[in-house]
Amino acid sequence: MELRVLKYFITIAxxxxxxxxxxxxHITQPTLSRQIIELEDELGVQLFERNxxxxxxxLTDEGVRFYNYAVQIMExxxxxxxEFRTDSSQISGKIYIGAGETKSLFSVADAFKxxxxxxxxxxxxxFSSDASVICERLDRGLCxxxxxxxxxxxEKYNHITLPRKDRWGLITRKDNPLAKYKSxxxxxxxxxxxxxxxxxxxxxxRELLDWxxxxxxxxxxxxTYNLLYNASIFTDEGICSCIxxxxxxxxxxxxxxxxxxxxxxxxxxxxxxxxxxxxxSKPAKVLLEEIKKNxx
Length: 296
Prior knowledge:
Layout: H1 3-15, H2 18-25, H3 29-43, E1 48-51, E2 56-59, H4 61-84, E3 93-99, H5 105-118, E4 122-128, H6 131-139, E5 145-149, E6 158-161, E7 166-173, H7 186-192, E8 196-199, H8 200-204, E9 221-225, H9 228-236, E10 241-245, E11 257-261, E12 267-268, E13 270-274, H10 282-293
Parallel strand pairs: 3-4, 3-5, 8-9, 8-10
Antiparallel strand pairs: 1-2, 5-13, 6-13, 7-10, 7-11, 7-12
Helix pairs in contact: 1-2, 1-4, 5-10
């Protein structure tokens, strides 16, 4: 199995049309078709459903699984080439960072800004998701660093604690009665029986369980979110509030939303982590050293 064949497969999957894919790759359609048939024979599965009527190539279930692997293999290949194809006279290359939504990323951004002053050819690739996806990318070598919020399994990695902690609170509309409180207690949520969304990751990790009194069942939890932006749209529409970290969604004067901290206050540590058994690239090492300067 060659990388170029994986590239062919990915292009067809994205275009859903073999003629268009052949034009993009600059090979003939019969050649491309033969390569994909040979790939399916090698794997022993059918990767595409061919619809002769509209000439669409749709991934089968096996095709979707293989597509996820193929994309990761190509990303890792490109990352490896970037790491080694560098000018020895200066530090250059890309740093890959996976992160959850947290304003503690300012610490990483500040450090990156400083190293760019001395090493202007260093670049960054940011990937946003929850802890499970970031872990997978870190473990597969697709990220140099992962930024985790309150992550209980961080001990499996080399890691440092970033200087800022993230505060939990309620994101709600400014015309919601709860917006008038200086802080939100669990009794307030019960009294108003406020519908709210909560982080799926926080529920999985049992974060804030003590704050809720050991159980969330008696509260009006109507769903979960992965990343806050989409959840904040539901809040904007007046459907519900969100239990969230501070500083992720806009609560400016022009915004209809506001942030009210929880009482008693709850903070989550934020960690920068990297694999124990992997040598960091030169740009990644430079960034890590700069971040460590501010972590005491």
